[in-house]
User: Fold this.
Amino acid sequence: MKKVLLHICCGVCCASVVNKLREDGYEVTGYFYNPNIHPREEYDRRLGVVREAAKLLKFTLLEGVYEDERWLNKVKGLEEEKEGGRRCLVCYQMRLLDTLRQAKEFGIEYFATTLSVSPHKDVVDINRIGSDLSPMFLSYDFKQGDGFKKTMEFAKEHEFYRQNYCGCKFSMTRQWNAARQG
Assistant:
């Protein structure tokens, strides 16, 4: 069976993605690497949900290092970018590059990401970045086939915590400001 290291952004997003990859003949190992998530308490909360999802879906989970300072240095100068802008592209690349490194280290043939299941993320950008990094990247649009709907149903069924912002402190600040103005 072919093996894939799946970058997981949060527990909510992984259910339909793991199932789709399995349907396509892959043995899935999850990888939680998200140094963009702020604050640390939010990171820990999301990691806890991913751990629970890994137990329920029965896949091995590898946990990356929380490197928030490294992430902040990578996006320096892009703090004012809109969501989905250049800051996000740098963030995707950082997380996918680390996933590629881990796949190579563990002898896993392919890597993919749950990022494309989100209706808030541009699948073209995500797949371009992954494909540019390596032919080991599996380009998917996990929104297809009601992927997002299925993953939301799984999250609701298991009463998973569902965040209301992407993860970084810049998206959090904008979300809070929008909520106060709305």
User: Anything to note?
Assistant: The first strand starts at residue 2 and ends at 7. Residues 2-181 form a domain with the Rossmann fold fold (CATH 3.40.50.620). The chain has one domain: 2-181. Residues 175-182 have pLDDT under 50 and may be disordered.
